[in-house]
Amino acid sequence: MTNKASRAANRPPVLIRAADGAHREGPWNGSVSAEALGTDTFVLFPRFEEVGAGPVLHVHPYDEIFVVTKGRARFTVGEETFVAEEGDVAVAPANTPHKFANAGPGPLHTMDIHLSAEWIQYDLHDPEAG
C-alpha cells in the first residue's frame, strides 16, 4: 500500500454542514477548504442570479470539475462552448482557459471542485468581454 493510500485508509469520514460555513450570502456563496476536507481538493458553491453573470476567463494549473446544481450555464473551455444544465458535469482540464455564465432563464448554482489544496487562478484577457 502506498503512503498516500495508507493515509486515506486511516482517515475518518468528514461531514461539513451548510450551517458550519459551507454556504454564505453573495455570488461565491461559500466554500469548503481542502484542510477541512482532509484532502487535496477544495469546493466552491457559486451562485449567479443575473443572466450573463459569471467568472471572467481564467486558468488554473489543475483540473476543475463543475456540477450544475440549478439552472443552465454556458461554458467556454478552450475552443469549445457548450451549455450544461442541472445535473450535468463539466471539466476544465489544467492550464485550459475557461469561463462560464448564467445561460438563464433563472438563477445558476454550481458546485466547483478544484483538484488542488489551494486556489490558484490567473485571470486572462477575454476578447469577448470587449
From TrEMBL:
Pfam families: Cupin_2. It comes from the Bacteria. Residues 51-113 form the Cupin type-2 domain. Gene3D superfamilies: Jelly Rolls. InterPro entries: Cupin_2, QDO-like, RmlC-like_jellyroll, RmlC_Cupin_sf. This is Cupin domain-containing protein. It comes from Maritimibacter harenae. The lineage of its organism: Bacteria, Pseudomonadati, Pseudomonadota, Alphaproteobacteria, Rhodobacterales.
